[in-house]
Fold this protein.
Amino acid sequence: MKTDLIESIAEAFGIYISDLKQEQIRMQTLAYILECSGYEITEWNKLINYIFGLKCEFNDEKEAKDFYIKQICSNLHSAGGSAGRKDLPT
């Protein structure tokens, strides 16, 4: 289920992730997110929930995008360059 969700979200952004590791997923989505716009806010909220395990109810695409970028940068910095993801509870 979680894999299907993230693949669906990533594919909505034009990224096909079936063979990527979590860190690669984050970096590719970050690179794409820096230039994308016009996506449903619910998709941003789902992406943030899946990647970071945080329930967010953003109402604005820019706010969600900025939050995602800050979280990625924060995780990269605190992990010494490795964006390890904590598994979400099932």
Summary: The two ends are 10 Å apart (CA to CA). The helical segments are 2-12, 22-33, 41-52, 61-78. The CA atoms of residues 49 and 55 lie 5 Å apart.
